[in-house]
Amino acid sequence: MGTSTRLRPPAVLLTIGDELLTGERVDTNAGWLAEALTDLSFDVREILSVGDEEEEIRNALVRAEIRAAGGVAILTGGLGPTLDDRTREAVARHRDVELQEDPAVLEVLAARFRDRGYADLPPLNRRIARVPRGARVLPNPEGSAPGLELPGSGSGSGSGSGSGAVLFLLPGVPAEMRAIFRGSVRERLDILFPERLAPPAVEIVRTSGIPESELAGELEACLEPLPGVKVQYRPSVEGVELRFSVEGTAAPARLAEALAAAKDALSPWRFGGRGTSAAEAALEACRQAGWRLAVAESCTGGMLGARLTAVPGSSDVVVGGVIAYDNRLKTDLLGVPGSLLEAHGAVSEPVACSMAAGACSRLGADIAVSITGVAGPGGGSETRPVGTVWFGLCRPGAPVRGRTERFPGTREEIRRRAVQFALRWVRMEALEAGAGTGPGDHVDSGSDSPR
Questions:
Q1: Which of 17, 158, 368, 421 has a CA 20 to 30 Å removed from the CA of 361?
Q2: pLDDT single digits (tens) 122-176
Q3: Is the pTM of this model over 0.85?
């Protein structure tokens, strides 16, 4: 194995399942594994997807072992008990080894089914215990089918120095795959590939309220004097996620220097890091301000309330909300005057402000935000085209304020962008209150839509 291969072993990912080719399921496993392996200093060279036919799996394995020679190939899917789960058979024939029933796996399966009230293991599930000869069994803490490891085809010792690749077979269920990878697979990779480079220093930054192109322009100017800093941009309808990474000598210190240089450009838009949602950030800001929050929704139909209450512990901040889709409910539940609706229409600043004020007073909140708009695909007009959304924000003792945005995209994307905007507005309001600024000094919420 060459020096570069030892330092950055090659890796190929093979995801298996007819549903991946027909579009019935989105392949999230490949992306997750690619990022995890890259962070562990593997060189991910290719991602393949095939259906459940054994011959197709075997053909893909030939390519995967060539591309990942001296490294690792990870397969996901096809390890279940049904007849369309053929990964074990394909791998066994590819490596020219027999499938053998593993007594230890069989006992784990039987115990799992006994715990679920079964006296005996269903016959079909015995297929899960069939293991290619020479494979190492990797426990599955989240499900039935264990992971499997087969040594490089030319090594026999289980090291990564064979003419082929070390094969890892993992279940296709994302939670199970991730649990086995984080546990057994990562441990085995450290043993099999001890000479690889130290992982790069990585920081994930999540932003909202600024388009990707504008953010990139600001960051590139800040980071120009700092070579070796890689920034990946991952835009979505909910904002732009950034992945900062630095490799080599003093990587953590150089990454810290880069983040410090980018601080002023990021601070107005940054709301968290890896795994942090805008809802969590808004809740924490309200919590620090000592505020209880209420929401009033029309076009988003409860999406904002759902995002907030999906966060564990949100009950100490969220009072509740009102879905006032029909104009009558805007009046009956939120106190929006009928004359206001007649004069301005439901999608307007006066109605958005009245909705927020009604939610704040009637639900006894310290802050309330409202959303009313035209999500499409129909219902738009020359003055209120599809994507027009009005927001209202109310705090007792302060003027009620309204803001409008016109969001691009499908109905679902418009609604999600509207929710993200509302969360950011609430968060910024709470942060400014904590900093001692007045309600009129609000930082512009901006938009994630292209400009």
A1: 421
A2: 999 999 999 999 999 999 999 999 999 999 975 433 344 446 899 999 999 999 9
A3: no
137: Cβ contacts below 8 Å, ≥ 6 apart: 102, 104, 105, 131, 146, 147, 148
Domain presence at residue 446: no
Which of 96-100, 224-228, 239-243, 272-276 shows the lowest mean pLDDT across its residues?
272-276
From 272, 305, 322, the end of a domain falls on 272
Based on the domain organization, do 322 and 289 belong to the same domain?
A: yes
Nearest CA to 76 out of 147, 130, 9 is that of: 147
Structural domain boundaries, residue 256: 201-272
User: 332 and 381, same structural domain?
Assistant: yes
- Examine the domain organization and report whether 344 and 362 are in the same domain: yes
Mean pLDDT for all residues in the chain: 92
How would residue 437 be classed by pLDDT, with cut points 50, 70 and 90?
very low
Using alpha carbons, list the distances in angstroms from residue 95 to 78, 98, 120, 154, 189. Answer: 17, 9, 33, 10, 21
pLDDT tens track for 170-216: 999 999 999 999 999 999 999 999 999 888 899 999 999 999 999 99
**What CATH number should be reported for the domain holding residue 257?**
3.30.70.2860
What distance in Å separates the CA atoms of residue 165 and residue 106, rounded to the nearest whole number? 28
pLDDT of residue 434: 77
Distance in angstroms (rounded) separating the CA atoms of residues 176 and 192: 22
Give the span between the Cα atoms of 214 and 239, in whole angstroms: 12
